[in-house]
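Researcher: I'm preparing a figure for a lab meeting and need a structural model of a single chain. I don't have an experimental structure, so a prediction will have to do for now. The sequence is pasted below. Please return the structure as tokens so I can convert it later.
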Amino acid sequence: MPWTTTFLGELRVVESVYIEPLGAEELMAAAKEAIEVARRAGTTLFLGDCTGLGPSGSVLDIYQLGRFLETVFMGQVGREAILLPASPDAAENLKFYETVMRNRGLEVRLFRDRDTALRWLAELKDAA
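Model: Understood. Here is the structure written out token by token.
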């Protein structure tokens, strides 16, 4: 599997770490796995570590993933922090993902630093 999913208990965050090659089917399966872990844990905080990704995926794949996630999280408050890869082309795909998700009313932000991303996620956890 080109991903791993872990629940960071103390932080109440579901972390998914992605590596290449990661196609549309794997991405959808990874999202479903992360959502299931989050539901069992009672959280809506996610960290997507995309530092191991290169420039793959298509605009259509990203759009379809956004549509799926919108139906899953409709009406819920949640956050997803994404750690950007070094590849500028891969980072562009994730910027598009961020835009798609935010246009659908979901809170997604891109980060270069893990600690900053986790602090942003903790803001919602601490406000609850």
